[in-house]
Every structure is written in structure tokens, then in C-alpha cells.
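Example record used in the benchmark description.
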Amino acid sequence: MEGRPRDTVSLINAAREISQEIALCGLSRGGFFDVAAFQGGTCLRIFHGLDRFSEDLDFGLTDPGASFDIRKYAPYIENEFGSHGLDVHPMIREVEGGNITGCMMKGNLRDILKQFGASDDEMRLIHPDTLLRIKMDVDTDTPDGFQVEHVYKGVPFCYPATLMNIHTLFAGKTSATICRHWGKRFKGRDLFDFEWYVNNGISLNKEFLKSNLVRDGRLSESEELDYDTLQRILRDRFEEIDYDSAREDVRSFVLSGSRDFDRWNADHFIELGSRIKMV
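Model output (C-alpha cells):
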């Protein structure tokens, strides 16, 4: 973390990313990846080089019928942070109903930055009591059709992990783009990632996308998810998005000037959607 001081948002993003990798390493030591696979934007960032920062750790159980208790893995996360001299506690999140369980990791932001070499000038940008929060969610009823891969992470921390493969990740992101609702706002990070997948020529796991859309009520089990059906669903979605709110959501997660969001509109994303290939 040498060089001239960065702004507060950049410092938070850097500290969060280091902390995410520590948590993943602890989960790996606890055998978590024997029963779950990493998914979502943070997975794409850490393992596939997505050019934006990401907040949360998202997972899906690879054996949804198996017994699962997030409490089993909390000590491994805490111990891994402790091995780096950090006091970070995962607090179990009780989610009423639904299929999500998880925890919230909290630690002092300045302590984390100091431990990993932030300068004195950078430290002065952060209030002493500021907490860094990382949310971890596990889908305990993962839709059918996912495919996984087993990888080994070598830098900056060494650990094996199980991921949803890139085609399944794209399907999950497409489902989120179609189905996720934040009231009148839109999660622009979904659009950013969707654009990344298409521009990198990634094909989409059709079976996993259909399972997600069926679970959300967008398709019936008997309906076929063919190219024309997907285009209709995407077109309807892209025409209703508030692109101003989408741009506002994503800006703090990308380096200033690294991406032009002025072209974001319905026509742009409908054209991107038309280039999707399903496998």
C-alpha cells in the first residue's frame, strides 16, 4: 500500500478485498468447500479478474439436501484473521424464512489497514472507530443445474477452493440482473458484470439459469428457455431499469475513469443480450 494517499473509498475497497481472501482461506481450512461453492461478483473479481471491487461473499451448497450449520465455520474465519493479528468476529445472521443463511464479519478498518501496510497519511483519512463489514450469504437450496470447478489460490494467500464454474456464474448473474429488486433502485454492479461476461465471450449455463428463473416465478417448469424466450425476458427487464440509479450504484466500485457509463441504456444492454450463447 505504498505511494501517495488514496481516497477513503479506495482504502475501504482494498481492506475489504484483503479481508475477503482471509475469510476464504479460513473457510477452506475448515472444510467449507467440501459442501459449498463460491459464486457471485466477488468470486468473479478474485478468481477471474473482474475489473471492479465487490462487497459480499456468496456461496451455494453443492449438496443442498445435506445438513448445514454456518456456526461450524465461524471459528475458522476468526482464527484465520487472528493469525494475521486482526480481531475480526463473524456474527451469525439469523435470516427469517427463505433459503439464505450467513454471517457478518466486523473488524476495525484502521487495524486492518495498518496490519497490511497503509501509510500514516492514509490512516488519517479513516476515523478510528470505523468498522469494516463483510457479509457472507449461503444459499442452502441451490437451484439445479450448477457446475463447479476446484482451484488452488496462490496469491496473496494459499488455499484450495470450490467455485461455480464460469458458465454457471454467468447464469447466476443473468438471473440476478433479471430478478433482483431494490425497490425503485437498481444494482448497477449486476449490469457491470453482465457486460463483462458478454464482452469476454462467456457462454451461459442454460439449465442453471432456467432453475433460477423457475424458482423466482419468471418461468414455469414446463416452459422451454430457448434463445427467443431469453431475449424477451431480457428486453422487458432492460426497458424498465433506472439507469441513473444503476450508474450511481456502481461508480464507487470501479477506478475513476476506467469505464464509460454514458452508453448505458436499454438499447445497449438489449444488444449485449442478443450476443449471449447458452450451453
